[in-house]
Amino acid sequence: xxxxxxxxxxxxxxxxxxxxxxxxxxxxxxxxxxxxxxxxxxxxxxxxxxxxxxxxxxxxxxxxxxxxxxxxxxxxxxxxxxxxxxxxxxxxxxxxxxxxxxxxxxxxxxxxxxxxxxxxxxxxxxxxxxxxxxxxxxxxxxxxxxxxxxxxxxxxxxxxxxxxxxxxxxxxxxxxxxxxxxxxxxxxxxxxxxxxxxxxxxxxxxxxxxxxxxxxxxxxxxxxxxxxxxxxxxxxxxxxxxxxxxxxxxxxxxxxxxxxxxxxxxxxxxxxxxxxxxxxxxxxxxxxxxxxxxxxxxxxxxxxxxxxxxxxxxxxxxxxxxxxxxxxxxxxxxxxxxxxxxxxxxxxxxxxxxxxxxxxxxxxxxxxxxxxxxxxxxxxxxxxxxxxxxxxxxxxxxxxxxxxxxxxxxxxxxxxxxxxxxxxxxxxxxxxxxxxxxxxxxxxxxxxxxxxxxxxxxxxxxxxxxxxxxxxxxxxxxxxxxxxxxxxxxxxxxxxxxxxxxxxxxxxxxxxxxxxxxxxxxxxxxxxxxxxxxxxxxxxxxxxxxxxxxxxxxxxxxxxxxxxxxxxxxxxxxxxxxxxxxxxxxxxxxxxxxxxxxxxxxxxxxxxxxxxxxxxxxxxxxxxxxxxxxxxxxxxxxxxxxxxxxxxxxxxxxxxxxxxxxxxxxxxxxxxxxxxxxxxxxxxxxxxxxxxxxxxxxxxxxxxxxxxxxxxxxxxxxxxxxxxxxxxxxxxxxxxxxxxxxxxxxxxxxxxxxxxxxxxxxxxxxxxxxxxxxxxxxxxxxxxxxxxxxxxxxxxxxxxxxxxxxxxxxxxxxxxxxxxxxxxxxxxxxxxxxxxxxxxxxxxxxxxxxxxxxxxxxxxxxxxxxxxxxxxxxxxxxxxxxxxxxxxxxxxxxxxxxxxxxxxxxxxxxxxxxxxxxxxxxxxxx
Length: 926
Known about the structure:
There is one protein chain. The chain is an all-alpha fold. Among the domains are: 531-699, no CATH class; 724-925. Helices cover 71% and strands 0% of the residues. It has 48 helices and no strands. The longest helix has 31 residues, at 165-195. The chain starts with 8 loop residues before the first helix and ends with a helix. 42% of the residues are buried. Keywords: Acetylation, Cytoplasm, Nucleus, Phosphoprotein, Protein transport, Transport. Residues 31-97 form the Importin N-terminal domain.
């Protein structure tokens, strides 16, 4: 409830004191809620100003400054334009009173408030020049003025301000015009700071960096620019403080990220190359922060020359030498330094892969060889590591990133060559266990890409792994097992090794020292690759499936193993398949039956054996991945198993009906079961639908809507099922609409929106005429209109898909099921104006830009249904409803821009053109 009467300044001050000084938690919470309400009120503008004038204490000044900033960012429309100037003058007065002792957070909030005001206030034509004129003569205002000059360009893209493209362009022109004066002021500040304090120099370079980053400063002569020279000087000096070093690094990276002329780029390149001794010095003094800064500079340098490096496959570009600087950093003993460079290598490998030019790729081969050598060293564990690595520590995370990187770059040197190089390292005399493990780790990451008929090295590697003893370090054995799993394609091509490999993995699976997890992963890979050759081992695999809980593996790995075994089940003869699958499913259903028989539901412990989802997920893995080749005339070999399991599944749904997680898993099990046997599951449809509808009415689990869409997909083409399916939809509608129509109902239930409109789309796809003829289509369409503004990716996508699927049946060129066309045309003509209005409003004010292609699809489909005159009328009505001016008084969209958007949409032949037009247009309001 908003405040109706203005509080006094003293009352607000009392609230602030309670919030910051009262020891009673209830009183503090009460004060916090009251102050929050106060900040939303119209009275907070005046009282915040008064508190800033009174300067009673730190907390009241901070609260007032923060309130002022918050109001300008979020509630600027509350102020009439006539009060903008007095607000500006008041803020400038407060800032003029800042001293070197004023608390940083108050300075930041006040400066942010004034910076945002300068961007929002259209009547303030030259804010930068005015601020320089007013504040630069006052020595004590140097710090806040630098802060404001830094914040204005930073805030241009603030999502709170929504300046719009026109205003941003106008501000950018203001910044460019003011740049010479700003540069003059920054140079003056830099000279003052030499005799005064580091704080001003830091603020000066931060400001320079920000202006460079938005291309407001001309950089033709930047190498000679005193500020750029100062940046290089700071980066070259050992005595530079850490904070200044960080700022100089940001500044250098900003310079490198701008579009520079070739001459200046060469100058910058040469200057950065001269920082190599400073890098080595930081390593020598063990100043890791500076080391990481240099690494970042060298990496950004190469990124700024990225396309020059790749422009010629004849003569390598001089900038390739920059990679040598980066590789020096990758050679650092601390893996966090190397990690800074990873995105550069990803980008390089992706570009070389796309270009597929062997001559060009060869230029980079020596660098990747050095990179792999460095990664081999960095991936080594500590020699005193006794057990396996903790999967959750930062070094394990680094090794996962190394793994991804190796897989990306290995093709540049050749996976076979990399594998061979590591094999040679393994054979070096005096090899330690940690270097052995690291070499195997690298081999593991390239093994999949080695040709399966390789017979020189892999047989030796496999033999060595199979002969490992218990005395070998546990980490070496773990990585060796993982390597075996990655060699699954080679093993498939060398069936004579399969029995020995399986015996080795089964032995490892029974270990209690952490090796079981690696064995489970490797066995899953081998099952997937060697399906046909593994059928003769099905008896042993069924035994493994029955003994899963005796192995030291988590449930995810157990599910992986069941997936691998199920892929082999699919290759079995019919009688064997049914017997083996029945047995494996029994292992999962018997514990579920015990849970159902047990007493009332207590708290379900997620991931424990008493959690029904634990067993449902396992059964689901078996059903999902058992896909035998069965003709439509044959009775599916698993149908009987499914029919027998249904009563138990139904009991689970009843007993655990309040637990959304168990319901989702159970619905997924039913979904895969139905998908597996398809129309043969028709006997289950009626009891399932009855139970789903009943439970959905009680608990609103959206997974039932999703399962309903699966039934529509499978059974809507069977005429006798259509009425039952439409009855199901009708039963779903009332509880769904009731939930979505309350305040924030759409926003709070995106899964329901997603699954409901996916269900409706399936009806349109599978039985369009009965759906369009039903009385349900109108309320569903009305609900979809309301859901247009929902900014949830999947939910909004389902709504847009629903519109597209429906409108497709009304196209003028639609000759399939022609009875649908007049029904859709009528819907489009009745709702077209509201649809376009909501789509345009949602695009401008609610949706992320990546969601606009879906909107474009709907507009394109609507164009194909209604006449051009109608579509143009809908668009113009929607555009006329948009605000032409912002609360700051500047123009959001000109009539020319509105007309251009309308004409582009009308002319567009494909959704892509509409998407481009939408993205350009919405930037006018963001």
